[in-house]
Amino acid sequence: MHDLKWIRANPADFDGGLKRRGMQPHSAEILALDEENRAHIAKLQEMQTRRNAVSKQIGKAKGSGDEAKAKELMDEVASLKEDYAAGEKQGGKIADDLNALLASLPNIPLDEVPDGGGEADNVVTRTEGEKPSFSFTPKEHFDLGEDLGMLDFETAAKMSGARFAVLSGPLARLERALAAFMLDIHTTEYGYTEVVPPILVRDEAVFGTAQLPKFAEDLFRTENGYWLIPTAEVPLTNMVREQILAESELPKRFAAHTPCFRSEAGSAGKDTRGLIRMHQFSKVEMVSVVHPREAMDELERMTGCAEEILKRLGLAYQVLTLCTGDMGFTARKTYDLEVWLPGQDSYREISSCSVCGDFQTRRMKTRFREAGGKTLHFPHTLNGSGLAVGRTMVAVLENYQQEDGSIMIPEALRSYMGGLEKIEKS
RNA sequence: GGAGAGGUGGCCGAGUGGUCGAAGGCGCUCCCCUGCUAAGGGAGUAUACGGUAACCCCGUAUCGAGGGUUCGAAUCCCUUCCUCUCCGCCA
Predict the structure, then answer these.
(1) Annotated catalytic, A249?
(2) ipTM associated with this complex
(3) For A200 and B46, how far is CA from C1' in angstroms?
(4) What CA–CA distance (Å, rounded) separates A169 from A154?
(5) pTM above 0.90, yes or no
């Protein structure tokens, strides 16, 4: 949610930010509504002031037994009532329009974010790790998994349809191992608090992180109105909703391993094979709630946490700074981590770390009180994957495949796999 | 799922139609007093929005949320969310 006061003071910057995202300017429309809204508020408050004053006099008159005076005053206030009801209705509509408009507009990118219209304009900021070399043609992960007999899309399709998978045996364990490995690093080495959050949440929570109202079609919803989380960003960020924190409580860092559910509306025909794009997948997510002045450092730190996982798994990757046209709705700046997939002969997104400024805390009504001071401020939020577990498994399969179709288990993971060194067909 | 009880300020807790933004207590802040410690005295202590250049001041709203009745609602009515107790069911 945007800061109306900031838009009032900086309409050109606001429109400039929207334009960089490929959107039309909106400040004139917003400011017109705002002005109208404030005029209505002033008018209504004036009426209320009068009504309150007269009502108090009625109370006094009745208290002193002066019924005639009371009656007279009651007649006087009666006419006020109609005007007030009409004004309230009109004013309410203006306020609703204004809020709906504000809620529908994406966050303003930071100056340092590269301009661009889409994926092609993202900037490769650095490349890390070494791609493995093969003496044979590396296979894609779905062939590897299916040949091992541990990855089964057909069986999943029978019970759930497309975009679901069944993992079994050592591959199922690998999923659990990866998640535990990631979570252990984030919690014991980087200070994230491990959380097991609800994965069914209500409207308010999803509005808070701004998947609602604009992106409802991307989400699954239960018949009684819960939303299945598309990412643990939703519950983890909402950990601080409607709270006033002490400055000393910041930063707050949460990490969780949860299933995520996405309808993938509009991505028909995309990544139809394999584990890359599922209706259900698991992910380890990081969320930080920080003092505004710490936000940019925290973005680097969080990205580093995600990178550390890739490094320890010995996977090559590149870091992209997303351009204005490819960033998510809430982001002011985003780094994507793309892991090297030899089977696909390409880099694929495995993590996305974003700084959202106060965009989400305004929606959630999260504030913090400055130490020693009285004034309240909105903290800033960040979220990042650390990492997408399914896609990490894809990377392990493709990068550690052997000519015979077996998979070497990365050193760092072996203790989580009961000492197993290699996954092979049984 | 059935039957009850309840949601008031940072916390506890009064308050069943008028002068209540809300008694009292605790906590916290500042000041005074007190030769340590303890005690005592005084003042202050919500948020949002609008009027404003203004965190001074004025106004409006907020007693879980939304709606209604009324000249006037923390107090009455309806809806809804949440919490708790008992029963049932259940991992």
Answers:
(1) no
(2) 0.84
(3) 33
(4) 17
(5) yes
